[in-house]
Amino acid sequence: MKDSFLYPIIFMLITVLIFTGILAVMYRLSQGKIQAHIDDSYNRKVLITLAGVISDKTGVAEDEIIAAYPESYDEYIVPIAVDSFERNVFAAKVDDEILGYAFEIAGNGLWGSMSALVSLNTQLDTILELRLVSQMETPGLGARIEEDWFLKQFKDRLFVYNPESDSDVSKKYEFIAETQTPKDDSELRSVTGATITSSAVLQMLKDEITYIYNAFEREEQL
Known about the structure:
alpha+beta; 5 helices
C-alpha cells in the first residue's frame, strides 16, 4: 500500500480531517468567549459615546465612568426597543432623566459597509460622540477613520439642517486636507489618501441622523 499513489492521498485526507475536526472543536469551545468579547467591546463603546452627558449630570469624570465599566454601563445605560428602527438604540439615564441617546447607524465605505455608534442630544439633532463599530477600509489609509482626531471633529456638531438659523452650516460641511487648519465650522479635515472614505462617514451621518430626527423626534416615539 505504501508504494501505491493512493497512500499519500489517503494520508493527506485523514490528516486534513483530523485537523479540521480539532479546529471545529476549538471554535465551538471558544465561540461563547468570542461573542462575549464582541458584546463587551460594543457595550463599552455605547458607554463611551454617552459618558460625556453622564459626567455633566453626575459630576463624575468621563474617564472614571468609562473605567468603571461594566458597573457604570449597568447603572446608566438603558437599551430601548423601537419597532420602526431595526438597529440598536440606547439611552443614558440618571435619576429617571434621559440625558441623550446612542444609535447604531450604518453606511457604505469605499470597500464595503461600515457601522458606527453615534450619541445624540435629546433633541436628536446634534452629535455628542461618535465611535466606529466596524469598517472594511484599507489599513493605514481609509481605516484611519477610527482615529480619535478624525472622530472628535464631529463632536457637538449639528447634523439636521435648520433653515431658520443663520449660523447653521450643517449643509455646507466639506473636507480639507488633513494637514490644513479649518478656517470655520464648515470645514473638516479628511484622512490623507482616503477622501472617499472620509466623505462616506460624513454622508452616513447626514443620512442616518436626518432619518432618526424625522422618524423619532417629530413623532415623539422615544
